Amino acid sequence: MAKRSSKQFGVLAIKSKDKSQTYNRIRLTSKEKSELLIEGLVTIILLILLNLAMYMILVQIIQTSVSLESFTNRFMPSIYDAFYSPRAMIWKKPIFALMAVLDIAILYWRLIRRYKQMQQRHIISELHYISSGHYDHRIPFDLGGDLGKLIRSINALVDSTVEAIEEERRIEQSKDELITNVSHDIRTPLTSIIGYLGLIEERQYSSEEELLKYTHTAYLKSKQMKLLVDDLFEYTKVRQSNTPINLVTFDMQQLIAQVVVDFELDAQKKEVTIDFEPSPPSLLMSGDTEKLVRVFDNLLSNAIKYGTDGTQIIVISEKKENEVIITVKNDGKEIPKKSLDLLFDRFYRVEESRSQQTGGTGLGLAITQSIVDLHHGQIYATSEKGWTSFIIHLPLEQPNHSNN
Ligand code: ATP
Ligand code: MG
């Protein structure tokens, strides 16, 4: 596509590609300047001819009107002197002045009209330029009045269209990534399942014990696949903003206490203690309990799984004004700063957990965040001074208390 020069479209300053571009007055090309000059000259000639014709007609009317002459001669001698005496020319002065004012007004009006047409031409050519695929370009003119408003509206429209296209592209790309990740995560256990079942099929085992070992591994890998498919199903379900949530009134402190009890055995096995600090001891609020249990399940299982060298997990649930702030924190190795923002991305796992046998699907925190979003809350992670914390803010009341 031909590169567009600022001269070609009569722009005073160079246009920058970003939104902070400088806006300029429209500068006319030399062709347009000549057009304007010709328009002015033609108008002046036409006006002179018109004035001449009007003057002649007026003189004719005044001088041929006998009755008017005799009437003014008799009753209005001063007017007679001004118009009919050969030496009097006074009446011509205001007429000439009036004509001059009218001429200037007409000339100004025609030139402005033509200039506006030229501005519109510039705007149209800018629009053609944008529509030919230069979506990072904006109309760079700074005009007042309606044309200025039009330019600002067009630029805003292009901005929102470009944003919509980019959003569409991002969605498309993230779908592709999802398919790639899912196929990769399903292929790995599937390959081992096929491998072990192949050994059994070809009877490449020496004892029943070995056979059982193969079937057990295939079973574990199948369970891993099932977990991934379940998580994926749940993730796609909670991702949709119109996902129905089953709102009930419940006691948040009781719900967390129950989840903590469920994890005590796992924690003991890893020699980790879990402390729960509810404040106040009972806190009624509304939410989807099934989904919220999933949130704390994931946060606690993460704290147990990934709290390397940690010995302590603390859950704090406190009421602050109209919300509850729940912190699930564990001591141990910190999460690197660069990973903190990525934790909530689907399939993201901090490097070391990928290779660990304990490593899950990487969907847990993405699901957690979507559930918190469904409850109009917020979740974020911090990791400093030997503590990794996941902090959730949830409003006590949900906007709609029905199943929506
Ligand atoms: P899933 O929860 O789906 O079984 P996962 O636990 O690997 O899989 P997420 O819960 O999304 O996935 O966690 C993403 C990653 O964040 C984990 O793999 C781990 O690397 C890191 N992570 C999460 N919680 C902690 C924690 N408390 N301490 C250290 N790292 C953590
Ligand atoms: Mg997890």
UniProtKB/TrEMBL annotation:
Coiled coil: none annotated. Keywords: ATP-binding, Cell membrane, Kinase, Membrane, Nucleotide-binding, Phosphoprotein, Transferase, Transmembrane, Transmembrane helix, Two-component regulatory system. It comes from the Bacteria. One of its GO terms (molecular function) is kinase activity. Its EC number is 2.7.13.3. It holds the Pfam family HATPase_c. It is a multi-pass membrane protein. Gene3D superfamilies: 1.10.287.130, Histidine kinase-like ATPase, C-terminal domain. Residues 121-166 form the HAMP domain. The keyword Membrane applies. The chain crosses the membrane at residues 36-62, 95-112. It is found in: Cell membrane. This is histidine kinase. It comes from Candidatus Vagococcus giribetii. The lineage of its organism: Bacteria, Bacillati, Bacillota, Bacilli, Lactobacillales.
